[in-house]
Write a structure and sequence with these properties.
The protein is of the alpha+beta class. The chain has 2 domains: 3-112, 3-Layer(aba) Sandwich (Rossmann fold), CATH 3.40.50; 125-237, Jelly Rolls (Sandwich), CATH 2.60.120. Helices cover 21% and strands 35% of the residues. The protein contains 4 helices and 16 strands. Strands 6-7-8-15-10-13 form a 6-stranded antiparallel beta sheet, with no helix packed on it. Strands 12-11-14-9-16 form a 5-stranded antiparallel beta sheet, with no helix packed on it. Helix 1 packs parallel to helix 3 (76-92). The protein is elongated, with a radius of gyration of 24 Å. The mean pLDDT is 96.
Amino acid sequence: FPNVFGKWCRPNYNSAIATFCYNIARDLPITVNDPSVVMNLVYIDDVVKELIRALKGEENRVGDFCEVPVVHTITLGEIVDLIYSFKNSREKLSIPDMSDEFIKKLYSTYLSYLSEDNFSYALKMNIDNRGSFTEFIRTPNRGQVSVNISKPGITKGNHWHNTKNEKFLVVSGKGVIRFRKIGSDKVIEYYVSGDKLEVVDIPPGYTHNIENLGDTDMVTIMWANECYDPNKPDTYYEEV
């Protein structure tokens, strides 16, 4: 086997990745003598999968030897940068690139080294007398996810976007989402409730709002196709 990595490997022993994940997750120092060193790595789940295949007589052979077919090649410095980015992702609300198989495996490995009193982290809630708005996840190419809480009788929104689009999902409470196409007088209404989960698309060019019609807080999961940029908000106030 090349260097094997994955969850639950003993840190500060004979695995650089285990040591880096453990120490970085706990704000402990690490030592990297040569970040340009190239490492060939196999993930523990891929090793186990290949061992099971070998027991069934379906092993992957190269000459006289059996090999794990999935090998990841990456420099030591790149590994360290990735692990630090995982640690910082909580503050940035970011998600690693899960389309990259190595990054997906390394992130799962990193999470397995979190201390048991550090599984959770707080989010910044923007609170006012209407309720709150909290960003949950921000991604470079899949937009952002936020949680909106509206107090009873409160209406939020009354704006439209040129290019930005959104999806609203009310998961608790009940309300109505109203639309009006810019330049039109016609108002469209969608009644929504946490008792019947239904996604409502928010197309560009329609001013829209959401009103809490219940007597309890209404909780809405909101996805936008781009992360909010205060320098380019693409948000224009106009009453529905």
